[in-house]
Amino acid sequence: MSVVNPANLVEGTYPLSIRLTDQYNRTTLTDIVLRIYGDSPAIVPLPVELVYFRAAVQQSQVKLQWLTASEENNKAFVVERSADGKQFSPIGTVAGAGTTVQPQHYSFVDSEYFSGTTYYRLKQIDFDGEFAYSNVVAVRKGGQNAQENTLKVWPNPFEQEVSIEVFSGTAEEASIDLTDMQGRQVHRATVQLKPGLNELNLPLKGISTGMYILRLQTKAINQTAKVIRK
Q1: What is the pTM of this model?
Q2: Structural domain range at position 59
């Protein structure tokens, strides 16, 4: 694979995700690191293969868990926290496993998370000082996370569109299906959720008058709501 630098990025390390979809709509997601030195960008494998990174509220604390499939030259994970999903601060460090091809389970407990939504990410650091960031995950005070969700839809009844509010614990793709009371699909849309609270607009022009089931689904969320087209 050849690499160019059309955006004239400065020297440094940039974690990237590449999504490939074949003719059968099967998708593969690959994480890489783009390292730029001078005018010569180069793609290198991630030193740590992160399988998942999760956050959940448990007994007034946030428990973070992550799993790696393999590690190379991994010194540590720095756990970072944010109130807005943009400005992160370190709150703790968990030692890495160095170099291994065996799965490694990690956990970290945060008892001082914010009111409202709290965001987390991992900063993985190599022994040579190189580092990369994980995906961002989020929880809400009161125990709500991606697995225990409340889907809000308004106005209801609607005329031409609905607004949807849903909380996601991580950045992920979601499908929205509208079916009639006989189970027939009348509308389908795909949206990209961000960590935290998402507000979406769903145009539904041309839908006949009646009652429908709106379902929003991801790997972690499966929520439904009854809506009425007036």
Answers
A1: 0.61
A2: 46-140
